[in-house]
Design a protein that fits this description.
Structural class: mainly alpha
Shape: elongated
Oligomer: single chain
Radius of gyration: 21 Å
Order of helices and strands: HHHHHH
Strand content: under 5%
Largest sheet: none
Distance between the termini: 29 Å
Protein backbone atom coordinates (compact mmCIF):
# COMPACT_ATOMS: atom_id res chain seq x y z
CA UNK A 1 0.00 0.00 0.00
CA UNK A 2 1.48 3.40 -0.92
CA UNK A 3 2.70 5.50 1.98
CA UNK A 4 0.44 8.46 1.14
CA UNK A 5 -2.62 6.17 1.30
CA UNK A 6 -1.55 4.84 4.70
CA UNK A 7 -0.98 8.37 6.00
CA UNK A 8 -4.44 9.36 4.78
CA UNK A 9 -6.03 6.35 6.48
CA UNK A 10 -4.23 7.04 9.75
CA UNK A 11 -5.20 10.71 9.62
CA UNK A 12 -8.81 9.83 8.81
CA UNK A 13 -9.04 7.45 11.74
CA UNK A 14 -7.47 10.03 14.03
CA UNK A 15 -4.40 7.95 14.78
CA UNK A 16 -1.06 9.57 15.31
CA UNK A 17 1.22 7.17 13.58
CA UNK A 18 4.89 6.52 13.30
CA UNK A 19 5.13 5.45 9.69
CA UNK A 20 8.67 5.18 8.36
CA UNK A 21 9.81 8.67 7.45
CA UNK A 22 7.16 10.45 9.55
CA UNK A 23 7.27 11.81 13.04
CA UNK A 24 4.33 10.62 15.08
CA UNK A 25 3.65 10.12 18.77
CA UNK A 26 3.29 6.36 18.44
CA UNK A 27 5.22 3.84 16.46
CA UNK A 28 3.71 0.95 14.60
CA UNK A 29 5.07 -1.37 17.29
CA UNK A 30 3.06 0.50 19.91
CA UNK A 31 -0.09 0.18 17.84
CA UNK A 32 0.08 -3.60 17.65
CA UNK A 33 -2.29 -5.63 19.74
CA UNK A 34 -1.21 -6.32 23.27
CA UNK A 35 -1.58 -9.57 25.17
CA UNK A 36 -4.90 -11.32 25.59
CA UNK A 37 -5.06 -10.45 29.29
CA UNK A 38 -4.70 -6.73 28.58
CA UNK A 39 -7.32 -6.87 25.84
CA UNK A 40 -9.72 -8.66 28.19
CA UNK A 41 -9.11 -6.01 30.89
CA UNK A 42 -9.90 -3.23 28.40
CA UNK A 43 -13.09 -4.99 27.37
CA UNK A 44 -14.15 -5.40 30.99
CA UNK A 45 -13.50 -1.70 31.67
CA UNK A 46 -15.61 -0.91 28.62
CA UNK A 47 -18.36 -3.15 30.01
CA UNK A 48 -18.28 -1.20 33.28
CA UNK A 49 -18.58 2.13 31.42
CA UNK A 50 -21.47 0.83 29.33
CA UNK A 51 -23.20 -0.45 32.47
CA UNK A 52 -23.05 2.96 34.15
CA UNK A 53 -24.46 4.74 31.11
CA UNK A 54 -27.14 2.08 30.56
CA UNK A 55 -28.24 2.24 34.20
CA UNK A 56 -28.47 6.03 34.15
CA UNK A 57 -30.24 6.06 30.77
CA UNK A 58 -32.83 3.48 31.74
CA UNK A 59 -33.51 5.22 35.05
CA UNK A 60 -34.08 8.59 33.38
CA UNK A 61 -36.13 6.94 30.64
CA UNK A 62 -38.26 5.20 33.25
CA UNK A 63 -39.09 8.56 34.82
CA UNK A 64 -40.35 9.89 31.49
CA UNK A 65 -42.27 6.77 30.59
CA UNK A 66 -43.65 6.50 34.13
CA UNK A 67 -45.01 10.04 33.97
CA UNK A 68 -46.88 9.25 30.75
CA UNK A 69 -48.12 5.90 32.09
CA UNK A 70 -49.39 7.56 35.26
CA UNK A 71 -51.22 10.21 33.26
CA UNK A 72 -52.78 7.60 30.98
CA UNK A 73 -53.80 5.30 33.86
CA UNK A 74 -51.85 2.34 32.50
CA UNK A 75 -52.52 -1.21 33.75
CA UNK A 76 -50.29 -2.94 36.28
CA UNK A 77 -48.60 -5.21 33.74
CA UNK A 78 -47.26 -2.16 31.91
CA UNK A 79 -45.77 -0.88 35.16
CA UNK A 80 -44.22 -4.31 35.76
CA UNK A 81 -42.59 -4.25 32.30
CA UNK A 82 -41.29 -0.75 32.97
CA UNK A 83 -39.80 -1.83 36.30
CA UNK A 84 -38.18 -4.87 34.69
CA UNK A 85 -36.72 -2.76 31.90
CA UNK A 86 -35.45 -0.04 34.24
CA UNK A 87 -34.18 -2.16 37.13
CA UNK A 88 -33.46 -5.69 35.92
CA UNK A 89 -32.29 -5.15 32.34
CA UNK A 90 -29.09 -3.16 33.10
CA UNK A 91 -27.99 -5.77 35.65
CA UNK A 92 -28.80 -8.67 33.33
CA UNK A 93 -27.00 -7.04 30.40
CA UNK A 94 -23.91 -6.43 32.56
CA UNK A 95 -23.83 -10.00 33.80
CA UNK A 96 -24.17 -11.43 30.29
CA UNK A 97 -21.50 -9.04 28.98
CA UNK A 98 -19.03 -9.96 31.72
CA UNK A 99 -19.51 -13.69 31.16
CA UNK A 100 -19.33 -13.46 27.39
CA UNK A 101 -16.11 -14.60 25.68
CA UNK A 102 -16.47 -11.48 23.45
CA UNK A 103 -17.77 -8.61 25.63
CA UNK A 104 -17.64 -6.10 22.77
CA UNK A 105 -19.94 -8.19 20.60
CA UNK A 106 -22.29 -8.68 23.54
CA UNK A 107 -22.27 -4.91 24.15
CA UNK A 108 -23.29 -4.24 20.56
CA UNK A 109 -26.04 -6.84 20.78
CA UNK A 110 -27.35 -5.25 24.00
CA UNK A 111 -27.31 -1.79 22.45
CA UNK A 112 -29.54 -3.08 19.67
CA UNK A 113 -31.90 -4.43 22.33
CA UNK A 114 -31.76 -1.04 24.11
CA UNK A 115 -32.82 0.68 20.88
CA UNK A 116 -35.66 -1.79 20.36
CA UNK A 117 -36.86 -1.18 23.92
CA UNK A 118 -36.67 2.60 23.42
CA UNK A 119 -38.82 2.33 20.30
CA UNK A 120 -41.30 0.08 22.10
CA UNK A 121 -41.64 2.51 25.01
CA UNK A 122 -42.22 5.41 22.62
CA UNK A 123 -45.05 3.37 21.08
CA UNK A 124 -46.43 2.52 24.55
CA UNK A 125 -46.46 6.28 25.30
CA UNK A 126 -48.70 6.56 22.20
CA UNK A 127 -46.06 8.66 20.43
CA UNK A 128 -46.56 11.50 22.92
CA UNK A 129 -44.47 14.31 21.43
CA UNK A 130 -42.71 15.96 24.40
CA UNK A 131 -41.74 12.82 26.36
CA UNK A 132 -40.82 11.07 23.11
CA UNK A 133 -38.61 13.98 22.05
CA UNK A 134 -36.86 13.90 25.43
CA UNK A 135 -36.64 10.12 25.41
CA UNK A 136 -34.64 9.82 22.18
CA UNK A 137 -31.59 11.87 23.32
CA UNK A 138 -31.49 9.89 26.56
CA UNK A 139 -31.40 6.62 24.58
CA UNK A 140 -28.88 7.89 22.02
CA UNK A 141 -25.70 8.05 24.22
CA UNK A 142 -26.07 4.33 24.91
CA UNK A 143 -25.96 3.68 21.18
CA UNK A 144 -22.98 5.99 20.63
CA UNK A 145 -20.73 4.15 23.06
CA UNK A 146 -20.12 1.45 20.52
Amino acid sequence: MPRCVMQFLFATLGWRCGLPGTRGAATLMQMQLTGQAEVRQRELRFAARVHRVRTLGTALSALLVGAVLYEAGAPAWTWALLAANALAWPQLARRVMLRSPEPMIAAHRHMVLDSIAAGAWIAVMQFNLVPGALFVPIAQPRARLA
